[in-house]
Amino acid sequence: MPVPHDFVSLVKGQFRNDFLTFQKAVATTHPENVDEATRIFQLASSARQQLYITGFGNNIDPRGEPFLSMVSVRTDRLNTLLEVKPDDFYIKVGSGYPLRELNIDLAPHGLYFPLADLPYVGSVGGAIAVNLSGDLSGQVWPMKKYLLAGEIVLPNGEAIRPGSVAFKSVSGYDIVKLFAPSWGQLGLLVTVSLRVLPLTARQEYESLTMRAVDRIGFWEVFDPADDRPDAVYARKIKQRFDPQTILPLIDAPQPDYRDEVTHG
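Structure (tokenized):
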């Protein structure tokens, strides 16, 4: 069943002309800032319209029957490097910014981000959503390690700003870490703040290799029969963040999908 005409008309009436397009027959919105992202999620929540978050090369690019009744929220225009703080070693970047281009723009500032050199063809937000990770001298090196803060729009349209760029500023569990990985199930990352390193540290990460992105492992925790504590906790978080199921789970991939995913 396609997206209701009334909802499409509502979006067209409240946003600029190019905010909504159709990509492979899927209604697709293109927010450019947190205000636009908030408004589209608020409209969707009020109308009980299901959404799907995608980047510019998502591991499931919305196409085909499962997505025709959904509205895609694409981060392709959230693609700006917003702040670079060389003295404090952090940056703020739009979630749709290409991860592979990050070190190109950081180099003139004498900065470096280790995971941006991995062969991951996708956005910063996508890399966080899958918790892109590398192997370094036998240790797992995850995206979550560098995630400091974010501007996030929840499924009900509420904008939150968890985390902090200050060292040792958080006591207890930092909510922003829940989004690595979240696979687009808890809300839309609009901007993120990441810890970066001095460019002189680059040689320390020459042996860093990319780990396979494991979507199957994430999807397995949503099986009601899975009674592992982590799985039960994950389902409770999903229910807490998205009680209306505005961001529905799409069918899990086939078993051979685990080693193929390099996009986000």
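The two ends are 26 Å apart (CA to CA). Residues 252-263 have pLDDT under 50 and may be disordered.
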